[in-house]
Amino acid sequence: GRAMDAGQLSQLEGFCHTLYNATSEVERAQAHQMLLPLVQNPACLPQLQFVLAHTSSPHALIFSATGLMKLITSHWLSVADQQKEDMRSFLFDYLAKNGPDLYRSAPMGVSPVIRLLCRVIKLAWLEGPQHQNVVERVEQFLQSSPLHWVLGLEIYTELTTDMQPSIGPSMSRFRRTALSFRDTTLPSIFTVSLKTLEQITSGQINIADKGEERRLLKQVLQLSCNCLSFDFMGNMPDETTDDQSTVNVPHTWGMLRDEGIPKLFFDLFSRTCNYQWPESAQLCLQCLVLLAALRRSFFQKEEDRTKLLASMM
C-alpha cells in the first residue's frame, strides 16, 4: 500500500527508536534490517513522506527525512514531476506549520527536513523556472515569528551550502545549477542577510528572548559568510589548493560597495563579544576577512578599495 496505518507507523517509530537508542548491537542490527528496505527502494517514497507528515517521534522524523534525501538523490530520474512539486510544497508547508515547535521540542529534527527541502530544490532547479521561486516562499517565513525567521534563514543557509558545486557524480549539471543560482537568486539572499543584520544593529528587530536572538544572529551571520565564500566561478577548488584567497563576487553586487558594510560587521563583533556569543563573534571576523579579500577588479576605482581596507584598520 502507498500509505501506512497507525499500527504500522507506531511499529516503524519503535524500530527508529531502537536504531538510534539500542542498548544491544543485536537489537540495533534487527531494527536496521527492518528499516533498510525503505531507504533503498524509490517506490517507498510515499511511505517515508507519510511518516514525515504524521510522526511525532523525532527519531522517525530524522529517519524519514534522511531516507527521503538518500532516495531522491540516487533515484531522481525515477521521481515523477508531480511528485517533485508535491514534495517541495509539502516540505515548505510542513516547516511553516511545525518548524517553531520542533526548534523548541526536538531541534535535531529541523535540519534533516531543511536539508531534504534544499536537495529537492537543487535537483529540480534546471527543470524549469517554477522550481526556482525560492525567494517568494522563504519571504513568508521572514515576515512571521522570530523562529519562523530563523527557519527561513536556515533554509537559505543550507541552500547556499548545498548549491556549492563539488567534484563527484552529476558534476557538470550541479555546476550549471550553481551558476544559475548564483545569477538568479544568491544576490537576493545576500541582500536579505545584510538587511537583517542592519535591522539587528539598529534595534529595529527586538527579540525579547535572548536565546532566540542569539540563534537568529548566528544563523544570519553564517548565511552572510556562505554567500561571500560561494564558489562564484564554479572552480570547485579542492582542499589542497589555495584558490579561495580572492573573493570573486560578481560585478553587479553593488550592495558591497556601501561604505557602511565593514562597520556593520565590526559593530556586530563588539555586540557579540559583549553578549559572550563566541560562535557569532567568530563569524563576524570570517565575514570581515572575506570582505578584505574582494577581488581588485570589483571596485570601480582603486581608492574605493583602499577606503574599504582602511575602514578595517
Your description of this structure?
The structure is a single chain. The model has no long low-confidence stretch (mean pLDDT 92). The chain is mostly helical and 313 residues long. The chain has 14 helices and no strands. The protein is globular. The protein has helices at 6-21, 25-35, 45-54, 58-75, 81-105, 110-124, 134-142, 146-162, 171-184, 186-201, 210-228, 260-274, 278-292, 302-310. Helix 10 (186-201) runs antiparallel to helix 11 (210-228), helix 10 crosses helix 12 and helix 12 packs antiparallel against helix 13.
Task: Please name the defining characteristics of this protein.
313 residues; 14 helices; 0% strand; globular; mainly alpha
